[in-house]
Amino acid sequence: MRLARIHHERVVDPREIEEKSFQFAVAIVQMAKKLENDIPQLPLDNLLEEGTAVGSQVAEAQETSSRRTYLSRLTSARHASKRVQYWLRIVAEACPPSEDSAAELLADAQALHVTLGGLCVKARQALESEAH
After folding, report:
1. Rounded to whole angstroms, what are the CA distances from 4 to 17, 19, 54, 98, 112?
2. Long-range contacts: 35-39, Cβ < 8 Å, 24+?
3. How far apart are the C-alpha atoms of 38 and 56, rounded to whole Å?
4. Is 46 domain-assigned?
5. If 0-12 CB within 10 Å is exposed, 13-18 middle and 19+ buried, where does residue 60 land?
6. Which CATH number goes with the domain that contains 108?
7. Is residue 2 domain-resident?
8. Using CA of residue 19, residue 20, residue 23, residue 25, what is the dihedral sign?
9. Each residue's pLDDT tens digit, 10-59
């Protein structure tokens, strides 16, 4: 599964990133399921945890009632997107047959990371302007 590439110049609608991060999590689960006999449990568990955390944190951000909590959830999602990149690199190196799907998911994780960064900046600016 390929996510539509997200360009860092354009901060997407928060609902759009929620759907993209959900689809990313589904792709991570599908890949992990295929690899469950090929890689040790620790990398697999971490890949699943971080890959699904991106989407769950974005979903939680959509339901918050304060800008501060919204920013906190988006920041957590961004951190998870960076950690999943690490685990995807390990999978790509350790399991060469999965290299193509890991490389695609790595590109998707990088795109999500950049987009979440833009949303965090926007949320931080809104929070700061609210304080003044």
Report:
1. 11, 11, 17, 21, 10
2. 35/91, 35/95, 35/98, 38/95, 38/97, 38/98, 39/91, 39/94, 39/95
3. 27
4. yes
5. middle
6. 1.20.1440.60
7. no
8. negative
9. 557 778 999 999 999 999 999 999 888 888 899 999 999 999 999 999 99
User: Is 66 buried (19+), middle (13-18) or exposed (0-12) by CB count in 10 A?
Assistant: exposed
Q: Is residue 1 part of a domain?
A: no
Q: What is the extent of the structural domain holding 51?
A: 14-131
What amino acid is encoded at 53 in this protein? Answer: A
Phi/psi zone of residue 96: left (φ > 0), alpha (ψ -120 to 50 degrees), beta?
alpha
pLDDT of residue 103: 87
> What's the number of domains the chain is made of?
1
- Asked if residue 99 has pLDDT above 80, the reply is no
Report the candidate in 18, 21, 6 with the shortest Cα–Cα distance to residue 62. Answer: 18
